[in-house]
Design goal:
alpha/beta, DNA_repair_put, DUF4130, DNA metabolism protein
């Protein structure tokens, strides 16, 4: 039995693939090094990320897979569910061992699992793009906090970079404790350790721009006025906007008393 550990990056996982093929030692398990549990049985192989080796694996996959299948592999990596690394390894091994395309070979469990995982991540990506709400800070930065089920922050930054190209913004993932910052020129991924009491969707009052609460109240008034009670369909509404996303939406927050 061969247990591999890696640094948790996509390039690190591709390096694991390279090492396993070079050694002809197929993994029994693959884990991120900080999550790995010591085992009394089998060989433990700690893999150091190598950009050249990872690049060779990815180039080989590009020759044998469509763009959609390549994206599905990366999305499955961002899925972050237990056993996902082994699923990806099994898929990649099948790709390299087959002369024909394996993309529609759903009889192979790993192919079906990659497709299903990629769909879940893709759906979460689109929901984050739709439901993220920024709040303006006192220094003019537009700040948003998210806690998605899957690691979709790397997938959504392009959307916000194009949509909000004329303003500084930052999106922070409280579950994974890293964020993306746009400085009007480029997006940078940053690590940020916030204390537990600051890991929520609303900025502290002292950090908000003076007019931020007014804008949120105006949006709530607009939403209340366009929402026709006779046409309410709670089941359909929950299907399109599941309750776990309500924490991001201004219109779902408790109404503040407005002065006459």
């Amino acid at each position: 039995m061969h247990f591999y550990t890696y640094d948790g990056t996509f390039e690190g996982l591709l390096t694991v693939v390279f090492e396993a093929f070079e050694r002809k030692a197929w993994p029994t398990g693959i884990q991120q090094e900080h999550l790995a549990q010591p085992s009394m049985f089998g060989e433990h192989i700690a893999v150091v990320t190598d950009e050249e080796k990872a690049g060779r694996v990815w180039q080989g996959l590009q020759k044998k897979l469509s763009i959609n299948a390549q994206q599905a592999l990366y999305h499955t990596f961002l899925w972050e569910q237990p056993g996902s690394e082994q699923i990806l390894f099994d898929y990649i091994k099948l790709v390299f061992s087959s002369r024909q395309s394996i993309e529609d070979n759903f009889a192979a469990p790993c192919v079906l699992q990659v497709q299903q995982a990629a769909k879940q991540v893709h759906r979460e990506k689109h929901r984050m793009e739709a439901f993220v709400r920024f709040q303006k800070t006192t220094d003019g930065l537009y700040f948003a906090v998210i806690s998605p089920d899957f690691n979709v922050l790397p997938l959504i930054v392009r959307h916000f970079e194009k949509r909000y190209a004329d303003q500084r913004w930052a999106i922070y993932d409280t579950s994974r404790r890293f964020g993306a910052y746009y400085d009007l020129k480029q997006v940078s991924l940053i690590s940020l350790e916030l204390p537990p009491h600051q890991r929520h969707t609303s900025l502290a009052a002292e950090a908000k721009d003076a007019e931020e609460d007014v804008y949120q109240q105006l949006w709530q008034v607009y939403f209340d006025n366009v929402n026709i009670p006779e046409r309410r369909n709670p089941k359909l509404h929950l299907r399109h906007i599941p309750r776990r996303y309500w924490k991001y939406l201004s219109e779902k927050q408790p109404r503040q008393l407005r002065q006459a």
